[in-house]
Amino acid sequence: MSALVRRLGYGGTLCLAVIVSFALLALFAPWLSPYPDQGMGTPNVIAKLKPPSADFWLGTDHLGRDVLSRVIFGARVSMSAGLLIVAFSLLIGLPVGLLAGYFGGWADEALMRVTDVFLAFPALLLAVLLAAALGPGLLNSIAAVAVTWWPWYARMARAEVLVLRGQPYVEAASVMGVSQGRILIRHILPGAARPLLVQAALDVGPALLTASSLSFLGLGILPPTADWGKMVDEGRKFFPDRWWVSAAPGIAIFLLALAFSVLGDALRDREGDKRRDAA
Amino acid sequence: MDLARYTLRRVLLSAFVVVGVTFLVFVVAQVVPSDPAALYAGPRPTVEQIAKARVTLDLDAPLPQRFVRFATAMGTGDFGVSYKSRRLISQDLAVYLPATLELAIFSTLLALLLGIPTGVIAAARRGSWLDRMGSLGSVLSVAMPTFFFAMLLQLVFSQWFGILPLSGRLSQQISISDPLPFVTGFNLIDAVIAGRPAVVLDALAHLILPALTLAAYPAGIAMRLTRAAMIEILARRHIIAARALGLSAPRILFGHALPNAVGPALTVIGLSFAYALTGAVLVEIIFAWPGLGRYVSEAILSKDFPVIAATTLVVTLCYVVMNLVIDLTQTLVDPRVALT
């Protein structure tokens, strides 16, 4: 525990704890939520829009479902959306950046101009356009956001490769006759991937915010599956008189995004210290 | 690289980006959706209606030919007709674009007004409560979902305090019984032209909450950038000299140090404008602001792809032009930028 605090600081450790708790809630939602069937979407019309009480800690929504159970089940969608968006983006961006940076020339020029086009869009708008074309659904909305996200990683990876390519150890490997593919994967990839992974950790928060914005707009996972963005939207019709329908999922998004961003900052600071020590 | 060549390169790159963006929008709006003809033909179309729509929309032509036609139409401002309302999209855009631009410009101004002075003071008084509040605020503003923040502002300022209107662009007694003549589409300007100070105030009151929602995040960035730039500048010789000459602290801060922080301010203008155009989709729905964001979100629900394509394209164009202008201004202010 104290080793963790030394590495991440108190803020970072607290954020890690928040993230782990949300992850546990998501994993064990059926056992941890008070009304699992309502969390999964079964309506309970006899208790519509009830304020928080001993039976329903966070009140009930317009279909009488327990908001707490819905928030717990919603953690599954938001958590996986944030992580998958970043993972898919890395999967596209990292190879593109590696190839562009290592081979240079017209391949580099062409790939970087493609990223220019993607980066020219306001990100949310392109995601909205794509999600609208693909139709609603969790995977579609994740894909839509990932398409707007990967160019950042491609650029970062390219910049890292340009630095690493000139390093003596890479030149030495090249002189020794190591094949280009092997140099790229064994000698450059590990060095280039590290800062990207830190950036990816920092991006999970914004990614899940974007995903929740899409679902707020009705482009996310389909009802009756619980999703925080969608829940805030559903509660908007009853806001502010029956604030609890929107408040809990809204605060949940904020907390999880905040935890990821502060933890990411802590990781980046640590990485920065390491680089300075190495230099 | 000299300034002229740099400028030429940036302009050419932007032109290329515009073509690329048009292509991407074309692919997403015209190729990906399953059957635009069925959407165009309206609810429960017959086979003949769909066939007729295919001809009207020219869907059977080869893709390159369709793209050229699409790009030419977009380039000449012929955005086509909405599937749903059958209105000319260009007419709708003429009304909604100024509303969104008014919001974007106002929120950018608000971000600068909030962010730069607090950044200057935070730099002058490092570790003070204002400095700490500012950095806390900028951390929180990154994680706050835009749509939820908008609802919180409505709750506090409209519901609890009752000092600002809940939504809309103008009060109903003005917009319905005594509307403003449409001149520029910017309500603030139109109200000044019409010589109606009460309407100017009303429009301003309606602008504050949506603009504040969009300004929170860029204001945090503005504060951080200004603070960092000022701390660096305050340690320089000409400031120490000014201090030795006995100039007053505000005069040194705002007269001698701040002009050097123009660079970060320009960065923030670009960022904030972009953020406002993007966030407009969410904010305009919540505040019932009749702009591009609401227009496009209604189009999404009815799968009105010509509207979605046209709006995306127009907003992206604003974004590209803005970035170009900011970059070129940046090189005028600080010619070293062009050298890298």
Please write out the topology.
The complex is a heterodimer of chains A (279) and B (340).
Chain A: H1 2-27, H2 29-32, H3 36-39, H4 67-103, H5 105-120, H6 123-134, H7 138-165, H8 168-175, H9 180-216, H10 228-236, H11 244-278
Chain B: H1 3-31, H2 36-40, H3 47-57, H4 63-75, H5 89-124, H6 129-143, H7 146-160, H8 172-175, H9 187-194, H10 197-234, H11 237-244, H12 249-257, H13 262-286, H14 292-301, H15 305-333, H16 336-339
Helix pairs in contact in B: 1-4, 1-15, 5-6, 5-10, 5-13, 6-10, 7-10, 7-13, 9-10, 10-13, 11-12, 13-14, 13-15, 14-15
Summarize the model shown.
The complex is a heterodimer of chains A (279) and B (340). With 279 residues, chain A is mainly α. In chain A, 77% of the residues lie in helices and 0% in strands.
Description:
The complex is a heterodimer of chains A (279) and B (340). Chain A has one domain: MetI-like (MetI-like fold, Orthogonal Bundle), CATH 1.10.3720. Helices cover 77% and strands 0% of the residues of chain A. Chain A is built from 11 helices and no strands. The model of chain A has no long low-confidence stretch (mean pLDDT 87). Chain B has 16 helices and no strands. Chain B is globular. The interface between A and B is large, with 44 and 49 residues.
CATH topology descriptor of chain A = MetI-like fold
Helix content of chain A: over 70%
The 3D shape of chain A can be described as elongated
Instruction: Return Rg of chain A in Å.
Output: 22 Å
Order of helices and strands of chain A: HHHHHHHHHHH
Mean pLDDT of chain B: 84
**Strand composition percent of chain A:** under 5%
